[in-house]
Every structure is written in structure tokens, then in C-alpha cells.
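Hi Y.,

Following your request, here is the sequence exactly as I used it, all 291 residues.
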Amino acid sequence: MRYGASVTSTAFLEPSASGASRIRWVREYIAHLRRARRMGAGCVVILWPVLGYLDFIVLRFLRLANASVVIHDPTPLVRAVGYGAWARAFARVLGRGSAITHSQIAREEVVAHLGESRTRLIHHPILSIDGRVSAEREPRVVRVLGQYKPSRNVEALESIAADDRISGHSFEIVGRGWPLVRGWKVTPEFVAEQELDHLISDSAAIVIPYTRFYQSGIAVRAIELGRPVVGPRRSSLAALFGVDAICLVDEDWGKGIANALSITEEQLSTVRVNYTALVDSTTRRYFETEN
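Below is the corresponding structure, written out as C-alpha cells. Let me know if you'd prefer a different format.
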């Protein structure tokens, strides 16, 4: 690993993917943590909490002191277990281990829940994917990818489709649970992993239409594949592109799309290099702190 740490990873499926019960899911999770303790792991990183803030209580019960839980959405964007006031209070007083967040916005919220000393910031990881970037973009398709959540900005999407400045483009949404959106072709289906790169690479631009969110894996994936992203300026996207980036939006989403379409491959490559350096910096700081 390029940060100087030797890593062993293990994974298991959540109930929606495995078809197993939630109780079995939790048992399997605890079994993996016990195995990590027996192996004498120097540092355990839980990439997705099974029980929200209650994971910190599990870490105390299993006596895993040098462990961290990645908290993606401190206040969930969809229904989730273990994020209420009581869970946060128990985690702060009785829990063990630290929290990792992938954005400054998320970090500020977790600090309020757990305290400064137990919160670490590592910006959302980005991969080096040389050889996977397609030669050129499809010049006409603007896409939204990922499941529908109440915090999606449908009004902004409808304003994009009605904007004369980008009237020559087609607009597509692919993701579970989406309602009809005026001016957009909606495919309300799960986006399989093998399809995701293709959908991103064949897009002129990717839109992140949230009113509230903490970080976007889709946005990072788009930069990995050399595609521009349009989203709100007052968000974690500012760390990815820079707060003054022309593809980030205050109110005028149509202008953001038009600006994104003018961004060159060289400029996108610079964004990827700069953001990778930021990720490396915060990741190295974490390993130095924890080890």
C-alpha cells in the first residue's frame, strides 16, 4: 500500500444483497471483528457501519481500541438504524474507537456528536485508473446516476431540461426509486457495478443534484474516468474541484452544465492529480495518528 501500511481486507454482503436476515448480518459482522482481534490487527477500519453510531459500542464490547468507523452520512439521507440522539449519546459516553469522515461537512457534524479527539478526516478515496478512460465523451448525454433520495433536487433537474443554453442535449437518470422528472428519461433501476463505468464514460457530464449531502462517490468516480461533474458549490465538491470551479453551482444549474461541457481533458486530469494529493495527505495523517 502506498501509505506504508500492510492491509488485509474482508467483506460480507448486507441483507438487501445477500437475502439473509439482519440478525445474521450483525452476527457475521461481529464474527469478522473478533477474527481481526485474534489476528492482532494493528488498526481496524470499518468501511460501512452496520449499526450506525452503535458500532462504537460494539467496539467497546469486543475490546477493539485501535479501530475506526467510516461515518458516511452523520444524519442519514435515507432511513437507517443507529443514528438517533440516544445512539449518538451512548457512542460518545460509552463507545470506543474513532470516526472517519470523507468531507469537512461530515466531520463538523460528527465532531458535534463524538468530540474533536475522536474524529478523523480522510477525503473520499480516488483510484488511479489509467487505461480505463475512454478516448472521447459522448457530446450529447447529461446523466444523473444513483438511487433517489428525498434530498435530490428535482426542481434543479427540471430547470436544466428547460434551459435553452443546453437544449441540444439529452438528459438521462439511471437509479432505483426515481419518480418521473420533466424533461429527463428516467430508468428507475439499480446500476450494476459493471455498468457504472460505461454510463459515466459515455456521458458529456454527470450531475449531482442534491439539496443536502456529505460526499459523492459518483463524483469521484467521474473524475477517475475523466468526466466533468456539476453540483452545488456549497458542498464537499469544493474539495474535489476547488471552491471557484466553473462547474459548481450557486443557483444557475444550466450555466453549470454549459461550463462543465467546456472543461478540457487536461483540466480534468489536473483536478484528478490535485485531489489525489489531498487524499494522500489526509490518509497519511490518519496512519501517522493511529499508529
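DSSP finds eleven helices and ten strands in the chain.

Thanks again,
Q.
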